[in-house]
Design goal:
The chain is α+β, with helices and mostly antiparallel strands. Helix content is 26%, strand content 25%.
C-alpha cells in the first residue's frame, strides 16, 4: 500500500512540475513579446517601414524587400541641387539606407520611419561644387539637410532639383523690383491695351515655365499683332536677363523686321516661341505697363541678396562685300545696297550679398551681312580703286547703311534684283576669276564705284 501511494505521489509531482514548467515558459515568452518587439516572427497587418508595407513578412523577407526598394529608388532618383543657372548632382553615396536598423527597430502594426544616414564629407563636397561652404549665416542648411533626408526617408519620386535659393534667408519681407526693361512701340497698335487689360501682372511659381505662344494661342480674340508679340517677348527677355529667369527658348529672325536692338531680339511666330522658367525658388511677378510710346516690363520678387547683372555686350561688326555685276548698256545701272552684319555675345554675372558667384553665357547672336550688288555697264580695270583694309575686330563700322544694333542678315546674292547678270563679269583688282563667285571688293570701295 505504501509503495502504491509513493508511486501516485511521484506521478502527481511530475504532472505538477510539467504544468509549472509550461507556465513559466509561457510567462517568459509573453514577457519577451511585450518588452522586446524584436521577438516576433512576422509583422502584423498595417506594419510599415517608410512607404513600404511589410505586413505578414518575417524579418528576413522584410530585409530583402527594403533592400530592393531602396536600391531601385537610388538608381532612379539621383538628387541634384540647383542654384539659379547651375546645378550639381549629389554623389549617390551621400545618402545610405540603414535597412537592418530599420527592420530591427520597427514596431509591429505601426508606421515606422526608414533610417537614412548622411555622409557629411560628401555633403560638404556637394555644397562646395556649388560654391556654398561656411555660409550658414546666409543659407539655412539645417532645414535644407532635413528636407533632403525626408525626401529619401519617404522614397519620394524625383520631381526636380532642390533649389538652394529657397533656403537663403530673405533680407526683408515683401516683394521688391528685381529688373526692368522697356522698348518703343507704335501708338497706333492697340495690342498693348488688350494685353494689359488681361495680363497686367503674371505670377510665375518656382520651377514653373512661361510660354508666350501658349498665351497668344489661347487668346485668339486678343488680336495681337506680329510686331507686338516680338516687341513684348524682346522686352521680357531683356528684363529676364537681369532676373532669376532661365531662358528655355528664344529665337532671332532672319531679317530683324521690327528693328530690335541686336542682342535683345526675341522673335515670335507660329513656329518660334519664347519660353522662360523661374529658377529663383520664390514666386516671380512680371508686370507690363505703358509709358508714352514705351512698353515697360518689371520683374519683382522677394529680396534674398541675389543680384544678376547683364555684362556689357560684346559686339563685332561683320563688314559686307561689294559685288560687281556687268549688265547690258540698255539696262539702267543700279545698286542693291549692302548692310553690315553683327555678332553679339551675351553673358550675365550673379552676385550674392555683393559677392561674385559666377558668370554664365547666355547667347551668341549672329546676323550675317547683306552683300552689296552693283549692276554696272562694262568697267575698265584701270577705273577700279584697289581695296583698303578694314579691321572689324574693334566693333566699329563705317557703313552709312548700318544702324547701330539693327543689321539685316544676309539674303541670297542677287535676290530681288530682277536683272540677269552678265555671266562674264569684269574682274577688278583683288577679284576672283571663278564664275560661280562674283568679283568682290571691300565695302569701302562702294562710294568710289557707285555712280
Amino acid at each position: 500500500m505504501a509503495q502504491k501511494n509513493s508511486l501516485q505521489f511521484f506521478i502527481l509531482s511530475l504532472i505538477v512540475g510539467i504544468i509549472l514548467l509550461a507556465g513559466t515558459f509561457s510567462f517568459t515568452s509573453l514577457t519577451k513579446a511585450v518588452l522586446n518587439p524584436d521577438s516576433f516572427t512576422h509583422f502584423k497587418e498595417n506594419s510599415w517601414i517608410g512607404p513600404i508595407d511589410v505586413s505578414g513578412l518575417n524579418k528576413e523577407q522584410s530585409l530583402q524587400l527594403l533592400s530592393k526598394k531602396t536600391n531601385d529608388w537610388k538608381k532612379k532618383n539621383q538628387i541634384a541641387t540647383q542654384f539659379l543657372f547651375e546645378s550639381a548632382k549629389m554623389d549617390p553615396e551621400t545618402l545610405t539606407f540603414d535597412v537592418q536598423g530599420s527592420v530591427n527597430t520597427a514596431l509591429n502594426g505601426q508606421r515606422n520611419q526608414m533610417q537614412v544616414n548622411l555622409n557629411e564629407n560628401l555633403w560638404n563636397d556637394h555644397l562646395l561644387e556649388l560654391g556654398f561652404t561656411g555660409q550658414e549665416d546666409i543659407v539655412d542648411f539645417v532645414n535644407f539637410k532635413q528636407d533632403i533626408l525626408s525626401f529619401a526617408t519617404d522614397l519620394q519620386p524625383n520631381s526636380g532639383n532642390f533649389n538652394l535659393t529657397s533656403y537663403i534667408n530673405p533680407q526683408e519681407t515683401g516683394v521688391s523690383e528685381i529688373a526692368q526693361a522697356s522698348m518703343p512701340f507704335s501708338l497706333s497698335d492697340a495690342s498693348i491695351s488688350s494685353w494689359i487689360r488681361k495680363h497686367t501682372t503674371i505670377k510665375v511659381e518656382p520651377n514653373q515655365s512661361l510660354s508666350l505662344n501658349d498665351i497668344f494661342i489661347s487668346e485668339p480674340e486678343g488680336l495681337y499683332s506680329d510686331e507686338f508679340k516680338t516687341i513684348l517677348a524682346s522686352t521680357i527677355y531683356k528684363a529676364a536677363l537681369e532676373s532669376p529667369f532661365q531662358i528655355l527658348e528664344r529665337n532671332i529672325s532672319q531679317t530683324n523686321p521690327f528693328k530690335i536692338q541686336a542682342g535683345f531680339e526675341a522673335f515670335i511666330d507660329d513656329n518660334k516661341d519664347f519660353v522662360i522658367e523661374n529658377v529663383y525658388g520664390f514666386p516671380l511677378n512680371i508686370e507690363t505697363t505703358q509709358s508714352g510710346n514705351q512698353l515697360v516690363v518689371k520683374i519683382s520678387g522677394p529680396d534674398v541678396g541675389i543680384e544678376i547683372d547683364l555684362d556689357p555686350l560684346k559686339r563685332k561688326v561683320l563688314p559686307y562685300r561689294v559685288q560687281i555685276q556687268t549688265i547690258e548698256k540698255s539696262v539702267p545701272q543700279k545698286t542693291d545696297e549692302g548692310v553690315e552684319g553683327v555678332e553679339v555675345k551675351l553673358t550675365r554675372t550673379v552676385f550674392l550679398n555683393r559677392e561674385k558667384k559666377a558668370t554664365f553665357h547666355v547667347a551668341n547672336d549672329l546676323y550675317f551681312p547683306k552683300h552689296e550688288i552693283q549692276y554696272r555697264h562694262e568697267v575698265k580695270a584701270t577705273e577700279m580703286t584697289p581695296p583698303t583694309s578694314n579691321d572689324s575686330s574693334t566693333g566699329e563700322g563705317t557703313n552709312n547703311n548700318s544702324v547701330d544694333g539693327f543689321p539685316t542678315p544676309s539674303v541670297p546674292i542677287g535676290g530681288g534684283s530682277g536683272v540677269t547678270p552678265n555671266p562674264t563679269p569684269i574682274i577688278p583688282p583683288g577679284g576672283t576669276s571663278t564664275e560661280s563667285d562674283s568679283d568682290e571688293i571691300l565695302k569701302e570701295d562702294q562710294t568710289k564705284n557707285t555712280k
